[in-house]
Amino acid sequence: MTTKAPVKIARDLEVVQIPEGHQVRLARGTEVRVMQALGDTYTVMTEYGTMVRIAGKDAEVIGETVKTAESEVAASPAGAAEPVTAEDVKERVWTALRGVYDPEIPVNVVELGLVYNNDVTPIPEGGYKVEVKMTLTAPGCGMGDVLKEDAARRIRAIPGVKAVNVQMVVDPPWGASMMSEAAKLQLGI
């Protein structure tokens, strides 16, 4: 989704500057144009020519409906029901990760081929531990920690998940050949 008409943000808020990954503050009344609204985040271009990411929990500042990973889990077909098996959790992790988007590319991290491992193991005291290894399209991208936290936050919202470890790795290096056919088609590759 892109907005043709700019909107003025309704209150001061903390955002993430793209591609640096730094927290910055936007003042109430700053004019922005929505460039991408995918998952539970919004990529906007400010009147100053900088691109920033607004969290779904702050969507009302641009006149959108507030979105969170938890609300997306509750709205999913599986709902908030407790997963029965590690395989159920693994499928929900893949679904959760499909809601994590590179703020500059309108394709989720799964379809981009950025997720290398999705391991789910039962914990003796009940629940599951999820370990994910993922990478970036470019080494040293400032958005790495932001995407890592997005993934962890979405995975923690899955019922039954008690521990989450998301690691950013650089080996093997990412390449366009790792993208799904759907992602390549969407990006015209």
- Could you state the CATH homologous superfamily of the largest domain? Fe-S cluster assembly (FSCA)
Secondary structure: helix percent: 10-25%
- Strand arrangement, major sheet: 1-4-5-6-2-3
Largest sheet: 6 strands, antiparallel
What coarse outline follows from CA principal-axis ratios? Answer: globular
The SSE string, one letter per element, is EEEEEEHHEEHEH
Please state the structural category.
alpha+beta
Provide the CATH architecture of the largest domain.
Answer: 2-Layer Sandwich
Q: How many strands in all?
A: 9
CATH level-3 fold name of the largest domain: GMP Synthetase, Chain A, domain 3
Q: What Rg, in angstroms, do the CA atoms define?
A: 17 Å
Oligomer: single chain
Spatial gap, N to C terminus: 21 Å
How many structural domains are formed by the residues? 2
Q: Mean pLDDT, rounded to whole units?
A: 88
The CATH class of the largest domain is identified as Alpha Beta
How many helical elements?
Answer: 4
In terms of DSSP E residues, the strand content is 25-35%
